[in-house]
Write a structure and sequence with these properties.
Blueprint: H1 2-22, E1 26-28, H2 29-36, H3 40-53, E2 56-58, E3 64-67, H4 69-77, H5 82-87, H6 92-98
Antiparallel strand pairs: 1-3, 2-3
Helix pairs in contact: 1-2
C-alpha cells in the first residue's frame, strides 16, 4: 500500500504545479485549493515541501505562491535527453563516442 500512497502524493503535487502554471506561475493558496479539490491543509503541506525544495516561493503573507527559476529551468530543459544534447553539438557526440570518450 505505501507505493500507492506515493503515487497519490505525486499526482496531488503535480495537480498543484499544474494549477500554478495555468495561473501564470503565481496564485493564492485559496485559489489552488479550490481548483485541485483538496483540503487546504494538504495543499499547504505540498506547497511547503515545494518551497523547501526551491520550486515555489511565497511572495507575501497573503498566501500567494509563485513558481521559481528552478521550476522554470526544468520546463526549459523540455525533457531533452543527453543523447539529444549530444546531437546538438554538431556531430561531436558521435565523434566522442567513436573515440571511446
Amino acid at each position: 500500500m505505501p507505493a500507492r500512497n506515493n503515487i497519490n502524493l505525486v499526482g496531488k503535487t503535480m495537480r498543484v504545479l499544474e494549477v500554478l502554471a495555468e495561473c501564470g506561475g503565481s496564485t493564492s493558496l485559496k485559489e489552488i485549493t479550490s481548483r485541485v479539490d483538496l483540503v487546504k491543509s494538504s495543499v499547504y503541506r505540498i506547497l511547503f515541501s515545494l518551497r523547501e525544495l526551491g520550486y515555489v516561493e511565497q511572495k507575501d503573507s497573503a498566501g500567494v505562491y509563485t513558481l521559481t527559476w528552478k521550476m522554470h529551468s526544468l520546463l526549459r530543459k523540455g525533457g531533452r535527453t543527453s543523447r539529444d544534447r549530444m546531437r546538438g553539438q554538431g556531430g561531436r557526440g558521435r565523434e566522442r563516442r567513436d573515440a571511446g570518450l
